[in-house]
């Protein structure tokens, strides 16, 4: 996609309109995995959240309208795909992410990476997409067709991964896909924090980042944005780590063995002796320790609540190489493909 916002949206529909439609069909089903959502409730949350998104990023709503027009879906149908995780504090995705600074990598590059563990039904609508707007950095992402933004990197050296963060939510507001897209319009960490703080956020979210200023992990609740920094290495799973937010861990149920996945990925990072590269991360993402609650996650029929969650894809961003490596499916049996800006 390239050009002005409305044209970019239309280009997505022209190339992947069938996938956008299918994602919209799956969205209400996805919302009902963890909550009971009627079509009327879906329309209400979608409409109200669209109002917040329009005030926050009108140019992105223009692109959004172009996607809907060329894909043959309504704005509310497409918005439901952006808000499907706003109906409940209980979520259906669990991820393991890391960010490494140049002193921790073999070639001195900035790396950020994550497994994306979610409903495998979303695999069929997952795409790699390059956007080249006329007034912002080019941006390469992986995610579901029709999302206004998701995980990836831009040509200013900003790379992002996204984890579910169990914490209080308000349910209505700017969907985090919009604020994530605004992040990729920036070129430094200070501006990233500014655009995130300016959003009336609907739900909490964890954003693992690589930036020209080094690794950063953002734990954002609807009320505040907290930043964790380390020049060498950061790791996150699905619970709060910032001291201000740790008390929330007592209020919300552990998500998909988050408390054991974090020590495991930390242990694996420790075995690298402070020198990793993309190949080593690919190996770590194949780890099955503590199965079925492993980093490389497979379905678990004995878990009636979260047992359907699998690693739908894993991704690695190399900021200097401007490259995105993606495995379609579990990293233990799916090769990584490389895409470049």
Describe the structure.
The chain is an alpha+beta fold and 341 residues long. It has one domain: 4-Layer Sandwich (Penicillin V Acylase, Chain A), CATH 3.60.60.10. The chain has an eight-stranded mixed β-sheet with strand order 1-4-5-6-7-8-9-10, covered by helices on one side. Strands 11-2-3-12-13-14 form a six-stranded antiparallel β-sheet.
Could you list some keywords that capture this structure?
341 residues, alpha+beta, Penicillin V Acylase, Chain A, eight-stranded mixed sheet, six-stranded antiparallel sheet, 8 helices, globular
Short summary:
31% of the residues lie in helices and 24% in strands.
| CATH class call | Alpha Beta
Helix-strand sequence: EHHHHEEEEEEHHEEEEHHEEE
Helix content: 25-40%
CATH architecture: 4-Layer Sandwich
Q: Give the count of structural domains.
A: 1
Strand arrangement across the biggest beta sheet:
1-4-5-6-7-8-9-10
Task: Tell me the span between the first and last alpha carbons.
Answer: 13 Å
Major β-sheet annotation? 8 strands, mixed
CATH topology: Penicillin V Acylase, Chain A
Radius of gyration: 18 Å
Number of strands: 14
Mean of residue pLDDT values = 95
What is the 3D form? globular
Oligomer: single chain
């Amino acid at each position: 996609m390239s050009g002005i916002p409305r044209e970019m949206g239309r280009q997505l529909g022209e190339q992947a309109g069938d996938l956008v439609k299918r994602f919209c069909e799956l969205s209400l089903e996805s919302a009902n995995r963890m909550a009971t959502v009627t079509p009327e409730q879906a329309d209400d949350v979608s409409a109200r959240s669209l109002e917040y998104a329009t005030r926050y990023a009108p140019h992105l709503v223009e692109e959004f309208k172009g996607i809907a027009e060329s894909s043959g879906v309504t704005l509310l149908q497409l918005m439901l795909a952006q808000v499907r995780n706003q109906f409940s504090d209980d979520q259906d995705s669990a991820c393991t992410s890391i960010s490494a600074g140049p002193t921790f990598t073999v070639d001195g590059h900035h790396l950020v990476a994550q497994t994306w563990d979610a409903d495998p039904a979303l695999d069929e609508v997952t795409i790699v997409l390059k956007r080249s707007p006329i007034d912002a950095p080019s941006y390469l992402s992986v995610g579901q067709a029709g999302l206004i933004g998701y995980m990836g990197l831009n040509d200013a050296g900003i790379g992002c991964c996204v984890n579910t963060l169990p914490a209080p939510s308000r349910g209505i507001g700017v969907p985090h896909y919009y604020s994530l897209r605004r992040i990729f319009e920036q070129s430094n960490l200070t501006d990233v924090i500014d655009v995130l703080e300016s959003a009336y956020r609907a739900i909490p979210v964890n954003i693992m980042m690589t930036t020209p200023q080094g690794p950063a992990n953002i734990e954002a609740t609807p009320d505040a944005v907290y930043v964790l920094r380390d020049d060498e290495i950061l790791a996150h799973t699905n619970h709060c780590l910032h001291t201000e937010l740790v008390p929330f861990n007592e209020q919300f149920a552990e998500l998909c063995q988050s408390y054991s996945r974090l020590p495991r990925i930390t242990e694996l990072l420790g075995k690298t002796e402070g020198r990793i590269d993309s190949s080593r991360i690919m190996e770590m993402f194949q780890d099955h320790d503590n199965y079925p609650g492993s980093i490389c996650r497979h379905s678990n029929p004995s878990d009636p609540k979260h047992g359907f969650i699998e690693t739908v894809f894993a991704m690695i961003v190399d900021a200097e190489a401007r490259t995105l490596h993606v495995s379609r499916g579990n990293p233990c049996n799916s090769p990584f493909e490389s895409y470049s800006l």
